[in-house]
Design goal:
The chain has eight helices and three strands, in the order H-H-H-H-H-E-E-E-H-H-H. The chain is mainly alpha-helical. It has two domains: about 70 residues, Helix Hairpins, CATH 1.10.287; about 100 residues, Iron/manganese superoxide dismutase, C-terminal domain (minor pseudopilin epsh fold, 3-Layer(bab) Sandwich). Strand 1 and strand 2 form a beta hairpin. The mean pLDDT is about 95.
Length: about 200
């Protein structure tokens, strides 16, 4: 039985300072992400054959998940996968902007990078309650910005995730308290655009 395990960050907890502090990263990874991982595994134990599928496969076709664990998979499988995806897109970027095909796609879909940045920030700031804001692509690589509640995944909507921002309060409250706007502004300094470009391919 291939249980899901908490992925490594690939960098130290203080690697994103001063934009995200080490204590927030440690708690977010070892407590919140670990809890989603554990609860995801617990749900799948009721139908052990589902361990043969990846989290991506399960969330892409939630209707194929047995009804008695579907909500748990949606919530905890989503939490497991959304965070795994999020960690990969974080890296201090020193002001470097997207390049190549990614920038072309952004400009084609939004006009300019600055317009995209404003639209994404506004979506994240105005999202009510807990959830994530996403940059996604459809089947013809048209980009759009969506906000989804809780741990819902764009995979369940048939969309390809490129970039996500966690707007649950646990992602920023230690350092930014209730100032979500400051957290969002800081996050633009730690987007790993190289990884986002790979996600588009």
């Amino acid at each position: 039985m291939n249980k899901h395990t908490l992925p490594e960050l690939g960098y130290t907890y203080n690697a994103l300072e001063p934009f995200i502090d080490a204590k927030t990263m440690e708690i977010h990874h070892t407590k919140h992400h670990q809890a989603y991982t554990d609860k995801f595994n617990a749900a799948l134990e009721k139908h052990e054959e589902l361990f043969d599928k990846t989290a991506l496969e399960l969330l892409t076709d939630l209707n194929a998940v047995p009804e008695d664990i579907r909500t748990a998979v949606r919530n905890n499988g989503g939490g497991f996968l959304n965070h795994s995806f999020f960690w990969q897109t974080l890296k201090i970027n020193n002001g470097i902007l997207p390049q190549g095909l990614l920038m072309t796609a952004i400009e084609k879909s939004f006009g300019t990078f600055d317009i995209f940045k404003e639209l994404f920030s506004t979506s994240a700031l105005s999202h009510f309650g807990s959830g994530w804001t996403w940059l996604v692509a459809n089947e013809v690589e048209e980009l759009s910005i969506i906000s989804l509640p809780n741990q819902d995944s764009p995979l369940s909507l048939g969309l390809k995730p490129l970039l996500n921002l966690d707007v649950w309060e646990h992602a920023y409250y230690l350092n930014y308290q209730n100032k979500r706007a400051d957290y969002i502004a800081a996050w633009w300094n730690i987007i790993n655009w190289e990884q986002v470009a790979k996600n588009l391919i």
